């Protein structure tokens, strides 16, 4: 479960797993806005104030690799849903 004021994990997963080619322009805009707001909230919220679940979720969705690619993006690329920029 995500912390109050943060994007839910199911919303993040749904946005990540739906191929970009199937999204409308408005979906792209909303996904980008939500992602940007959640990323900012992740950086602003001290680790000590995050629930364990939120800490795990932030690690999964943040840039975890040396190249800054998130684990979600790597998984998406692995199953052919990524944009292939990696």
Walk me through the structure:
By secondary structure, this protein is mainly α. The chain has one domain. Helices cover 55% and strands 0% of the residues. It has helices at residues 9-17, 25-44, 52-61, 71-78. The termini are far apart. Keywords: Stress response. This is Heat shock protein 9/12-domain-containing protein.
Features:
mainly alpha; 86 residues
In short:
Helix content is 55%, strand content 0%. The protein is mainly alpha-helical. The longest helix is centred in the middle third of the chain and has 20 residues, at 25-44.
Average pLDDT rating: 81
Strand content: under 5%
Helix percent reads 40-55%
Query: Helix- and strand-based class?
Result: mainly alpha
SSE succession:
HHHH
Shape: globular
- The counted number of beta strands is 0
Q: Note the gap between the termini.
A: 29 Å
Radius of gyration: 13 Å
* Number of spatially distinct domains: 1
Q: How many helical stretches?
A: 4
The description of the largest β-sheet is: none
Poorly predicted ranges (pLDDT <50, ≥5 residues)? Answer: none
Describe the secondary structure blueprint for this structure.
Elements: H1 9-17, H2 25-44, H3 52-61, H4 71-78
